[in-house]
Amino acid sequence: MKKTLTTFAILCSLTVFGQTTEEHLQNGISKHKQQDFKGAIKDYDKAIKADKNNKDAYYNRGTCELALKDFKSAMTDFSKTIELDPKFVKAYYSRATVFVSQEKYVEALPDLDKTIELDPTTPNVLTLRGQIRAQTGNKKGACEDFNKAKEIGDKQADKYINQFCGNEQQVGESLMLDWPESENWKIGSNQENEQMAMLELIHSNETLENWTEFGSMMSIKGAKNIPMDKAMNMMFEQAKQNSPKAKLTFIEKDESVEYPWIIFTIESPNFKNDKRPESQLWYIVQGKQALYTNFRAVKQATIPTDIKDKWIQFFKTGKIVNK
What we know:
Largest sheet: 7 strands, antiparallel
Strand content: 15-25%
Helix content: 40-55%
Order of helices and strands: HHHHHHHHHEEEEHEEEEHE
Number of strands: 9
Number of helices: 11
Strand order of the largest sheet: 2-3-4-8-7-6-5
Shape: elongated
CATH class of the largest domain: Mainly Alpha
């Protein structure tokens, strides 16, 4: 009888222990949802005190600490979660977020790699790793991540593909240009129809109505075997319709290569409907499936020599790719 009572007492003790741990955890979750992070942490503390192996309590406490920017504590709790469960996907992603929050981008990569290894559909993980790869010089890897993110339905993917991968398309031919991250470009407009695709870029603190420097990439689909001089003169004639005093200056071309190209400037002192000047440096490339017309512009009557030289070198890094 004594043995039976002892066993019953142990079972009751374990049951109370379990309920108490779960009760504290649920109380913490309730406060957590209300963004009472400090109150939630106190309940998670109690849950952990009752059960040192409660991985959910460690993880949840870490997310509260991260929200409060207590990065050291959050890092400790996410690491403990992973120690208790090496396949706890969210803990790897959250620990990477701690690194990112402290601008330790390279340090975040191993945890992002592990997250993707365990579950590549984790929300935002591919776009986050893609951004870090882009910022650390791995543009190829970045674009691979953004394209995979797009495949699984990440709505942010297109934004990053446009920002970091030029006008790269999922299938077929495209012209790749790496717009310098240091210049803080953003997408001002992105349009496409059966005849063309056009991407307009401006600096992050500017608008399409008020900019100091402007970038444009256009693909004219199906336009083939266009002589480079003809392409240049087409753009000049179009410019003169709105700016009769526009000036054309040929700079360089090469029609002996697989993808012929030409570089020239169109400098306009004013326009019929706008008295402000605008000067453009153009780079046109003939692909096998489209004609790629690109330019960079400034609100000046002429392009300063140093800017012109920089832009020429930038455009010469462009490459036709096929996927």
